[in-house]
C-alpha cells in the first residue's frame, strides 16, 4: 500500500514538474526556433555561419564556467532541502566568480587574435552570456521543484530576445547586434529570478565567498562538467570540422537545420528534467522505484522522439524551404538525416539523467568521452569524403553507438541495484 501511494505521489510530482517545464521550456524553445529561422533568413548563409560558430564557442566556455553546478546543485538540493540556502549561496557565488574570470580571459584572447572587427564583436557579444547567465538560479528552483517559477523566467528571457530581434535585426550587418541581444536577454531573466528567489523559495541569496567550501563542491560537480563538456564537444564537432575544412557558407548551410534539430532536442530535455529530482530522491530512498521511474522515462522519450524523426523525413523538403527559403535548398538532405538525432538524443537523455541521479556520472563521462573519440575519427573522414552531408551522417552513426553503449552499461548496473543487500553497501 505504502509503495503504491509513493508511486502515485511520485507520478503526480513528475506530472506537475513536466507541465510547468512544458510551459516554460516549450515557450523558450519555440522562441529559439522562431529566432533561428528569422536570423538564418535575415543574416544570410555566411553571416549566420559566423553567428553559429560564436555561439558554439560560448557554449564550450559555459561548460567551464558552470563547473557542473547546474546538475550537481539540483541533485544536492533535492537530497538536502533543509540546507538549500547554504548550497545555493555558495554555488551561485562560485558560478558568478567563474563567469567573470572566464569572460575576462576570453575578451583578452579575442583582442589578441587577428580577425575582422565585425567578427570580433560577434564573438565578444556572444561571450557576454558567460556573465548574464552565471547568476540565473533555475537550478535552485528545479531542486526545490518550483517549476512554475522557472516558466516565468524562461518566458521573460525568451520574450525579450524574440521581441528585440524582430524589431532591431533586419540586415546582415546586424550580426553583432543579434549576438548582443541574445546575451542581454538572459540578463533580464536572471535579474527577475534572483530578485524573487526569497519570495519564491524562502532562500535568501547572499554572496558566500568560501573557497574551502567551493573546492568541496567542485570535487563533486566537476564530473558533471566533464559529462556536459563531452556532450557539447561531441554535438558541435561537425560544425567546427566544416569551419575547418570548408567555409562559413557551408557552416551556415549545416547550422540552419542543425540548430532547429538541436532546439527540438533541447525542448525534449524538459521531460528528464522533470523526472530528475524524483529519480535522485528515489535512488536514496527506494531503489525499485528508481528503476521503474527510469523505465517510464525511457518509454516516454522514445514515444515522443520517433514520430518526430518520421515526420521530418517525410516532409523535410517542404519544411526547410518554408522555414529558410530557397537559399537553403542545399540543406534539405542534411535536415532529413539530422532529424533522426531527435529520438536518439531523447534516448540518451533517459539514460544520462539516470546515471547522474544514481551518482554514476563518472561512468557516464567515460561513455561520453568514447562518443567524442568516435566522431573525432568518423567526422573528418566523412566531411572530407562527402562534405556537409558527411557531417550529418557522422552525427547519426556516433549517436547510435553512444546510445547503445549507455543502454548496455546501465542495464548491467540495474542487476547490481536490485541485488539483496546492495543498499547497505
Give a summary of the structure in a few sentences.
The protein is mainly alpha-helical and 425 residues long.
Please give a structural write-up.
With 425 residues, the chain is an all-alpha fold. The protein has one domain. Helices cover 86% and strands 0% of the residues. The protein has 17 helices and no strands. The protein has helices at residues 2-66, 69-79, 84-112, 117-127, 129-132, 138-143, 147-168, 175-201, 211-245, 248-268, 270-285, 287-314, 316-324, 332-338, 341-357, 361-386, 388-417. The longest helix has 65 residues, at 2-66.
Keywords:
single chain; 425 residues; mainly alpha; 17 helices; globular; disordered N terminus; disordered C terminus
Unreliable parts: 1-9, 420-425
Mean pLDDT: 83
**How would you spell out the order of helices and strands?**
HHHHHHHHHHHHHHHHH
Structural class label: mainly alpha
Quote the distance from N terminus to C terminus.
27 Å
Which outline best applies? globular
User: How many domains, as an integer?
Assistant: 1
Percent of residues in beta strands: under 5%
Helix content: over 70%
List the helices and strands and how they pair.
Blueprint: H1 2-66, H2 69-79, H3 84-112, H4 117-127, H5 129-132, H6 138-143, H7 147-168, H8 175-201, H9 211-245, H10 248-268, H11 270-285, H12 287-314, H13 316-324, H14 332-338, H15 341-357, H16 361-386, H17 388-417
Helix pairs in contact: 1-3, 1-4, 1-7, 1-8, 1-9, 1-10, 1-11, 2-3, 2-9, 2-11, 3-4, 4-8, 7-8, 9-10, 9-16, 9-17, 10-14, 10-15, 10-17, 11-12, 11-15, 12-15, 13-14, 14-17, 15-17, 16-17
Amino acid at each position: 500500500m505504502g509503495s503504491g501511494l509513493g508511486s502515485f505521489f511520485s507520478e503526480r510530482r513528475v506530472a506537475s514538474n513536466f507541465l510547468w517545464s512544458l510551459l516554460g521550456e516549450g515557450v523558450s524553445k519555440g522562441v529559439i526556433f522562431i529566432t533561428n529561422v528569422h536570423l538564418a533568413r535575415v543574416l544570410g548563409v555566411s553571416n549566420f555561419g559566423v553567428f553559429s560558430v560564436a555561439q558554439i564557442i560560448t557554449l564550450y566556455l559555459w561548460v567551464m564556467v558552470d563547473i557542473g553546478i547546474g546538475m550537481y546543485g539540483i541533485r544536492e538540493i533535492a537530497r538536502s532541502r533543509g540546507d538549500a540556502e547554504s548550497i545555493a549561496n555558495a554555488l551561485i557565488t562560485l558560478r558568478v566568480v567563474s563567469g567573470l574570470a572566464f569572460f575576462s580571459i576570453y575578451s583578452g584572447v579575442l583582442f589578441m587574435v587577428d580577425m575582422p572587427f565585425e567578427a570580433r564583436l560577434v564573438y565578444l557579444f556572444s561571450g557576454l552570456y558567460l556573465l548574464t547567465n552565471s547568476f540565473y538560479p533555475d537550478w535552485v528552483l528545479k531542486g526545490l521543484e518550483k517549476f512554475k517559477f522557472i516558466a516565468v523566467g524562461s518566458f521573460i528571457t525568451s520574450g525579450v530576445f524574440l521581441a528585440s530581434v524582430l524589431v532591431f535585426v533586419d540586415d546582415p550587418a546586424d550580426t553583432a547586434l543579434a549576438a548582443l541581444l541574445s546575451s542581454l536577454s538572459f540578463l533580464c531573466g536572471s535579474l527577475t529570478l534572483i530578485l524573487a528567489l526569497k519570495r519564491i523559495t524562502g532562500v535568501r541569496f547572499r554572496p558566500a565567498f568560501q573557497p574551502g567550501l567551493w573546492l568541496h563542491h567542485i570535487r563533486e560537480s566537476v564530473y558533471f562538467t566533464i559529462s556536459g563538456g563531452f556532450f557539447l564537444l561531441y554535438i558541435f564537432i561537425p560544425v567546427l570540422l566544416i569551419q575547418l575544412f570548408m567555409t562559413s557558407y557551408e557552416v551556415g548551410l549545416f547550422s540552419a537545420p542543425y540548430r532547429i534539430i538541436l532546439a527540438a532536442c533541447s525542448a525534449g530535455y524538459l521531460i528528464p528534467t522533470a523526472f530528475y529530482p524524483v529519480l535522485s530522491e528515489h535512488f536514496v530512498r527506494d531503489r525499485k522505484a528508481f528503476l521503474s521511474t527510469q523505465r517510464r522515462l525511457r518509454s516516454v522519450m522514445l514515444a515522443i522522439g520517433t514520430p518526430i524523426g518520421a515526420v521530418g523525413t517525410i516532409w523535410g523538403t517542404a519544411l526547410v524551404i518554408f522555414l529558410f527559403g530557397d537559399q537553403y535548398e542545399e540543406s534539405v538532405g542534411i535536415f532529413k538525416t539530422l532529424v533522426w538525432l531527435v529520438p536518439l538524443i531523447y534516448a540518451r537523455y533517459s539514460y544520462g539523467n539516470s546515471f547522474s541521479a544514481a551518482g554514476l556520472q563518472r561512468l557516464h563521462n567515460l561513455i561520453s568521452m568514447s562518443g567524442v573519440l568516435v566522431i573525432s575519427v568518423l567526422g573528418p573522414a566523412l566531411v572530407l569524403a562527402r562534405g556537409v552531408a558527411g557531417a550529418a551522417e557522422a552525427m547519426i552513426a556516433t549517436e547510435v553507438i553512444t546510445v547503445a553503449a549507455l543502454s548496455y552499461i546501465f542495464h548491467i548496473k540495474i542487476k547490481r541495484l536490485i541485488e539483496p543487500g546492495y543498499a547497505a553497501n
